[in-house]
Write a structure and sequence with these properties.
Elements (H helix, E strand, L loop, with lengths): L13 H13 L4 H12 L5 H14 L3 H14 L14 H43 L2
C-alpha cells in the first residue's frame, strides 16, 4: 500500500517540512518520494541538518536525483545511512570540537610517546657505555 499525501503527518518542526518541500520542488520529486522521505526523516530529527546536507549533495551530484534519494532513503530505513563527515563549507561546530579534542589528545599522547622514545634512547646509550666498560675498551 502506497501512502498518499493525507496519510503522512508532517514533521514536528515546520522548518524541517519546508526544507524537504524545497528540495522536492528543486529536484522535481513526486509526492510518493516526498512522503517516504518525510517518514524516514521523522526518526532522524537529531541529525536532520547533516542528513539533509548529505542528501541534497547526493541529489545534486547524480544524473537521476530521484533514484539516488530513494537509495539513501532505503539505507535510512535499514539503519545503514550515515551523513557524510565533511562539508564543502567546512566542519560543523560539533565536528570542529571533536577534531580539536582529537588533536589535543594526540599532542598530549604524542608528546609522551616522544619523551618515552628519548628515555629509551638514553637507556640504550647507558647500556652500551656499561658494556664498553666491562670489555675494557
Amino acid at each position: 500500500k502506497k501512502p498518499n499525501a493525507a496519510s503522512v503527518p508532517p514533521l514536528s518542526e515546520q522548518w524541517m517540512m519546508e526544507e524537504i518541500e524545497s528540495s522536492c520542488s528543486r529536484h522535481k520529486l513526486d509526492q510518493t518520494v516526498k512522503n517516504r522521505w518525510i517518514n524516514a526523516m521523522r526518526k532522524r530529527a537529531a541529525t536532520f541538518k547533516e542528513d539533509m546536507a548529505t542528501l541534497n549533495d547526493v541529489m545534486r551530484a547524480h544524473k537521476h536525483p530521484r533514484g539516488a534519494l530513494q537509495l539513501k532513503i532505503r539505507e535510512m530505513e535499514r539503519g545503514k545511512f550515515s551523513a557524510r563527515s565533511y562539508s564543502p563549507l567546512g566542519p560543523t561546530p560539533a565536528e570542529r570540537q571533536d577534531m580539536e579534542r582529537a588533536a589535543k589528545a594526540a599532542a598530549e599522547g604524542g608528546g609522551k610517546a616522544e619523551q618515552d622514545d628519548k628515555d629509551k634512547g638514553k637507556e640504550k646509550e647507558k647500556s652500551k657505555d656499561k658494556e664498553k666498560e666491562k670489555d675494557g675498551r
